[in-house]
Amino acid sequence: MSLRYSFELFPPRDEAASRRVDAAVDAFIALEPEFVSVTFGAGGSTSRHSLTVLQRLLDGGANPMAHLTCTGLGVDETARLVRQFLDAGITRFLALRGDPPQAGVRLPTTSLQSASELVQLIQRVESERVPYAELRLPGLRASSLSERRAAVDVAVAAFPNGHPGAGVHRSDIDALLAKQAAGATMAITQLFFDPYDYARFVELARGRGVTIPIVPGVAIPTSLRRLVRSAELAGEGLPRVLADRLELASAADAVRIGVDAAVALIGALAEHDPPAVHLYTFNDHQPAIDVLRGVGALPLTTTGAP
Ligand code: FAD
Q1: Atom of ligand 1 at shortest distance to CA of 156?
Q2: CB atoms within 10 A of CB 200
Q3: Residue having the nearest C-alpha atom to atom 10 of ligand 1
Q4: Average pLDDT of the chain, as a whole number
């Protein structure tokens, strides 16, 4: 199967996690994905670690995509972060609102309220950073000023089963339209377990005027703990049959079951012609490689090793 793919990593919190991320970075660089995205802790808590992973990807020639959230950060602070990422050479972002901080956390006096505002801020910071480009004039020892073409690509989140705050009228789709109007060029979905959830969502979004590519996010549930945690984060019900199988399996069998589940989901999604798939890897590169082999996107011999 010819399939475009990308991966998600999260920044490590300790030495052991750091080694796992380094191994995943090396493996993913060798696979030449569309991009590798790196998550961002709410309120900027991981920005330094996120940037380290993004820099490693950039140095290795991969296309890094930086997640950025704006809730809980002042507008100036958010703009400074955007600038810092741009200065480091990052040109792809996943602009997110983030979840509101827990009660008791002191909030900044001004803060962006939505992902669509962050999409605009990223573009504004980039255009203020490099306001114009010089064009060489052919045959002359001269150049002229030209207006810059968009130098950043900003993706946004989409929710096949609705955002928890979206209500029955699906305000998440209006929010997605606002993000598109603000300049987002792609949407990546929250994880889901039923391929028809994706198909129905794409149909609904297209019906309301969303035209940007909507890339399905696919989790690889290689343990019951991981499945439960992913379902909680996404606000999804637990797929009972899969949960029961993972619960009874040995650790090694659970990995195989998780890979098979992701392969089956991607196989079923293929009927709905997704533009690509984005794999939530939990920083484990081997299951992600096995999934891509399982769907025929990689030769069976691929090791992913550098
Ligand atoms: P928005 O689209 O701005 O808003 C969320 C929802 O609020 C909308 O769908 C809509 O229902 C409602 N809403 C927004 N604006 C309005 C309005 N004006 N009027 C009415 N309703 C409105 N979180 C992190 O902290 N770090 C990450 O790295 C991270 N990565 C993610 C990656 C993906 C692919 C996804 C799907 C989610 C990720 N999240 C991450 C979680 C995300 O931050 C939360 O789901 C957050 O609650 C919503 O963010 P958003 O960008 O979709 O927000």
Answers
A1: 51
A2: 14
A3: 172
A4: 91
CA distance 17 to 20: 5
**Does residue 249's CB lie within 6 angstroms of at least one atom of ligand 1?**
no
30 CA distance to ligand 1 middle (Å): 31
Q: How much of the chain, in percent, has pLDDT values that exceed 70?
A: 94
Span 189-237, pLDDT tens digits: 999 999 999 999 999 999 999 999 999 999 999 999 999 999 998 888 9
Instruction: Tell which one of 85, 90, 96, 283 to mutate to probe ligand 1, the residue whose CB is within 8 A of the most ligand atoms.
Output: 96
Do 23 and 285 contact (CB within 8 A), yes or no? Answer: yes
Enter the pTM of the model. 0.93
> Where exactly are the structural domains of the chain?
5-294
Report whether residue 39 contacts ligand 1, using a CB cutoff of 6 Å.
yes
Strand segments, DSSP code E, in 123-275 are 132-136, 143-147, 153-158, 186-189, 214-215, 217-219
Best probe residue, ligand 1, of 6, 71, 163 (max atoms within 8 Å of C-beta): 163
**Are 161 and 167 in contact, with CB atoms under 8 Å apart?**
no
CATH 3.20.20.370 applies to domain 5-294: no
Choose the weakest-confidence range: 4-8, 129-133, 278-282.
129-133
Residue by residue, DSSP assigns 244-284 as HHHHHS-HHHHHHHHHHHHHHHHHHHHTT--S-EEEE-TT-
Region of poorest pLDDT, from 39-48, 66-75, 111-120, 195-204: 39-48
The CA 174 to ligand 1 mean position distance, Å, reads 12
Amino acid identity of residue 143, one-letter, is S
Q: How distant, in Å, are the alpha carbons of 55, 70, 119, 292 from that of 285?
A: 18, 29, 30, 11
